[in-house]
Each structure stands twice: as C-alpha cells, then as structure tokens.
From TrEMBL:
It comes from Salix purpurea (Purple osier willow). This is CALCIUM-BINDING EF-HAND FAMILY PROTEIN-RELATED. Residues 1-12 have a biased composition (Polar residues). Residues 1-28 are annotated as: Disordered. GO terms for molecular function: calcium ion binding. Keywords: Calcium. The lineage of its organism: Eukaryota, Viridiplantae, Streptophyta, Embryophyta, Tracheophyta. Residues 40-75 form the EF-hand domain. The keyword Repeat does not apply.
Length: 107
C-alpha cells in the first residue's frame, strides 16, 4: 500500500488506496477531502486505471471496465449481473454507453 509522506495528504492517500472493492463506504466529507487534493486524487485515478488495464495497452475496453461497473452496481444495491433482467438492462446500458477510453486524459 502506498502512502504519501506528508500529514493529511497521507491520510487521504491511505483512504483512497484502501477504499473501493472491499465494502468500505466513504461519506460525503471523505469524498470531498479526497477529490479536493489533486495530487492524491490523480494518483488514485492513475492507480485504478493501471489496475483495470489488464492488457497494458493504455486503453480500457468494456471487458476491462466490467469489474468497476459491477462494483458500482453492488454499491448501489443492484443485483449481480445475470441475476435480474431489470438490472441486466442497466448493466447493458452502461456497457454500450462507454466508448473505449484511450487514456486518462480523455476522461
């Protein structure tokens, strides 16, 4: 786990590195603090992009985005993909609405 060397920036980095995918929920003030620190937030986004870019081509395909979409769906209380026609429709809409992301700069 990577930590920043300075004060609250380190706490923010720690929150960003440990949140997501493990069931931890951040409240609004946590999110504002993390997004408000450009260096920490940028580092977190870079880390997540690299984590999702399994083939290391610098682009995120729909297949590579599926785990992130599933995590978001789960966080929103949606049933797992494949278990409900209603939620499957939402997953399909998200998948077809996301063009291939060529880099973080295109976000």
């Amino acid at each position: 786990m990577e930590k920043s060397a300075e004060g609250s920036s380190g706490a923010s980095t720690e929150k960003m590195k440990t949140s997501g995918g493990n069931g931890q929920v951040l409240d609004g003030s946590d999110i504002m603090e993390l997004v408000g620190n450009e260096e920490v937030f940028g580092s977190y986004i870079d880390h997540k992009f690299q984590e999702l870019d399994r083939d290391r081509d610098g682009k995120l395909s729909l297949k590579e985005l599926e785990p992130a979409v599933a995590d978001i769906g789960s966080a929103l209380g949606l049933p797992a993909q494949g278990s409900s026609p209603d939620s499957d429709h939402l997953y399909t809409e998200v998948s077809t609405a996301c063009p291939k992301i060529s880099s973080l700069s295109s976000l």
